[in-house]
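hey can u check if this looks right to u? its 415 residues, i copy pasted from the old doc so theres a chance i mangled smth
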Amino acid sequence: MTLSEELTWRGFINQTSYKDITAVDNGVVSFYFGVDPSSDSMTIGNLASAMMVRQFISHGHKAYLLVGGATGMIGDPDGKSEERQLQSLEQIDNNKKAIAAQYNQVFSGQDFTLVDNYDWFKDMNYLDFLRDIGKHVPTRQMLGRDFIQSRLGENSSGISYAEFSYSLIQGYDFLYLHQNMGVDLQLCGADQWGNSVTGVDLIRRITGDEVNVWSSPLIVNKATGVKFGKTEDGAIWLDPNKTSPTAFYQFWVNCDDQGLEDYLKVYTLLTKDEIDSLVSEHSSNPGARTGQKRLAEEVTKLIHGDQNAELAKQVTGYLTQEYSIDQAEQNIIEALRQEIPSLRTTADGSILDALVEAGLASSKGEARKLIAGRGISANGKLVERDNFEQTDFNQGRLILRRGKAFKDSALVELS
């Protein structure tokens, strides 16, 4: 496939300033893609755009990956109803290092140049910036942005001059990279379209050159209509300290059937034939979740490496009773203790106490109701009494579960 065909098939086209998308099939284009260090980790929302970037690199284009040390000092106000809390310079520096490390992981084996917009803003004279750059940006253009209008509306929180200027600062990034590194294209997520076209207009006004923007769409859970990656527990992070490799793997295993094909196209490097085959196999037996398992394996390998992906797969297998807990080696038991509550009891200990201690019931009364309602299992077998028996345990262990969701489980071990 040509790049434009690949991007179209994978669903990586939201908006673009190109009049003809096949322009990306001709010659080598220098482009940039940026992430602000507002956190010490990217999310799978950032990852979706990054996977689009991988396609551009794979098809021979030259990548500049930006860590927004300067823009991170302000914070993007788009989509925010209130002013951001400013981060300390030390925190921003730590976040930059973390984002750079994730770039190296996500783009492992690919050629790119890392840049930081703090490098060209740190010594910039404020008056020169207003005279040479600000003079070329119409206020009307900035005031027309939807988020500006919402922040300036009646009963709204308002917006500071710093956040109002964010779009101009990002626009200058594009100008600087264009003039100094020959960058003619910005890649971004759908939420960055407005900021990105500010750069296109600024470059046209100052240099007369024509540059372009290409944005990827927002990934939405088709079953719920909610932004993909938003869960009850918060965002799904690439940092293993924020979302463990096992929790990361399980997120993908549990993703909705309706969006499976889209997620395979966006988040993996599998070929069209491979994805078509997986989708067909899944359609014939959705309960086996073959597509989700392959998706989880591919994305977890990309972000956390083969070893962590395999461990996450095995831990999930024990939680779902695909494997018997008595077969688990010590590293699996340690990983289970990190993923779900763990506790110790005696061979005739109270199941009611165990459910409460594990947080699977709020009280003994609720625990009794759950048991009476056939809502509790031990190692996959229905629990119908208040106390454990020796035969419940395999090698001194069992998985206690409330309902069917394997996240509502606890590891119980004999004292």
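The mean pLDDT is 91.
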